[in-house]
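Box 3.1 A note on notation
Throughout this textbook, protein chains are presented in two layers. The first layer is the amino acid sequence; the second is a token string describing backbone geometry. Keep the layers aligned when reading.
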Amino acid sequence: MEQKGPLNIYEAVERMREISASGGTFALKFRKWDRQRHHGGDVAVLKLARLRRKASDERIENSSHKVFLTDTATGRAIVCWMCLIVEFNGRRVSF
């Protein structure tokens, strides 16, 4: 029986990995990072997301705190901060 409460962010990312490894997609809702105001901005919704290879911290600063995605509906590469993920497959995410 699946739990209905919020998912821990690390559990959500692990499920993203499992789904992506099997060739599936997942839904994700996250707040965009507003660089000028230094806080979360508008909410972005991806209905058909898949994880892609993570960059190293040497190439992209703080990459271990980010999730690297592909929006399979558009083919766009997207990066979001883990702490700004709001919802994964319809379940709230807590940090």
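The domain at 7-94 is CATH 2.30.30.100 (SH3 type barrels.). The CA atoms of residues 17 and 51 lie 7 Å apart.
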